UniProtKB/TrEMBL annotation:
Its cofactor is Mg(2+). Residues 374-409, 410-443, 444-473, 477-512 form the EF-hand domain. This is Uncharacterized protein. It comes from Fistulifera solaris (Oleaginous diatom). Belongs to the protein kinase superfamily. Ser/Thr protein kinase family. CDPK subfamily. SUPFAM superfamilies: EF-hand, Protein kinase-like (PK-like). ATP binds at K68. One of its GO terms (molecular function) is protein serine/threonine kinase activity. The keyword NADP does not apply. The keyword Disulfide bond does not apply. Residues 35-327 form the Protein kinase domain.
Amino acid sequence: MLSRSQHSPTNSENSTSIHSNILREIDNDDPFRKYEVVQVLGEGSMGAVFKVQIRKSQVGGSAFRPRKQKGLMKLFRFLKHDKHSVQPLHVSEHTDDFLYGMKRIMLDRISPAFIEELKNEIDILRNLDHPNIVRPHEVYTQKKQIYLVMDLCAGGDLYTRSPYTEKQAGRITTSILQAIRYMHNHGVVHRDLKYENIMFESTAQDAAIKIIDFGLSKKFIGKTGTMTERVGTIYTMSPQVLLGNYSAEADLWAVGVIAFMMCSSVKPFYDKRRSVLIDQIMRCKYSFESPVWSNVSEDAKDFISKLIVVDPKERLDAAQALGHKWIVNRERLPDEMPSEEVLSKVDGSLLNYRHTSRLKKLALTVIAHRSTTAEMQKLRSIFQEFDKTQDGVLSFDEFRQALEKMNYPEDTLAEIFDSVDLNQNGHIMWTEFLAATIEAHGHIGEDRIAEAFDRIDADDSGYISRQNLKDFLGDQCTKEQVDEMMTSADIDKDGKISYKEFLEAFRNQMHLAVEKVALDGGSIHASKTR
């Protein structure tokens, strides 16, 4: 394993990992057996976008309804009263946990190039893990259609809340830059940043934003090279994109355009005639002379002018933009500052996590990936408080600094850090942090544990097999790790883990971890967790 100082985030994505394997790919199945449409969000000739929720009868999937058992096998199992069977759970009336966005694409109505864009989006999203980037959950592939199930961004795009105050513009711009810095560090250029591709995750006034639509994005390894495809949406395209010779700095031009629009409610470049619009962009012809700019700070105008600049060498990169005084000195809103109560609960959860079994960590990772907006809101503020470099991952130094006031010994800090770093790639990713701290938010219902079981049981057999574990863990998996997980949960030693065994292992681990921390003389906060 690379030391923490040697680790390179860009190269870590070359192998399959737990995180990249969370996205479930299903062939020749009907997604509407599992999901029901709540609302049609958009419809066109090439497809549609729906707001969907998991049907109550389908929550938990193979935990209760092994789909590959047919006819006589189902009847036999019912009559036998299989010792592994569990009565279907009562699903809460609060269905926010199971609401998603679903994109349907009609393959026979789109060009091969568009199909490639869709495949590219799926491939890129499976490897991105950031609080302000939309998460994919499932892909259903049929002969004539593809369905992509993703986070539901219920608050609409940037247009829906215009106009913005400068304070709001600063907050949103910061989140966009944090996501872009993470993307660029991990070898991805978005190439189509615009108002329409920045969505609010909920209808709440203080809702966070998420970047969507990675169909035109580009992956690179190491230092970004030159790109030549003239792709994107013209009002946020840089002169270099129009010329067909550009690099990652094109995303920062787009951020400048977006910040200009939020501060003024107009575009920096606009004309109904495409040729005139292109000429404006090429000559970087925009100004702050409109009366609206009299109410905008000089810092904001300076920030924009350092992004909407023709020479990409003079343009700020994402890290430099995050260090600009307009961003650094902006007034933070209350929801961006975590409370001491939440911080103390997170401290306890992190301590408990040291003594959590690998199987439960796997389950918590799935639960974290499908976490609710309410859960993410508080934990995201803490993650970003820990992330001093704003690069979307936590280094050991950042982690040590964040927990400095707890006065833990260095070896305890290293133990906590390594226990959270489930991918063992030298840094803590967003979903890993969520998995380690999500129990600080409150009790995890059985319906969500059952959903985690169903995801790991990828072949819908009704059991978790050794092969299921190997497939889910990815390239980092060792035989010893699989043996450890099977031994810890396979009570009847039949070589597979039933849902009942999985549930017992999950719940028992919760109590054992708390008891262990208390015996170790850990933080007082830890003994107060469930």
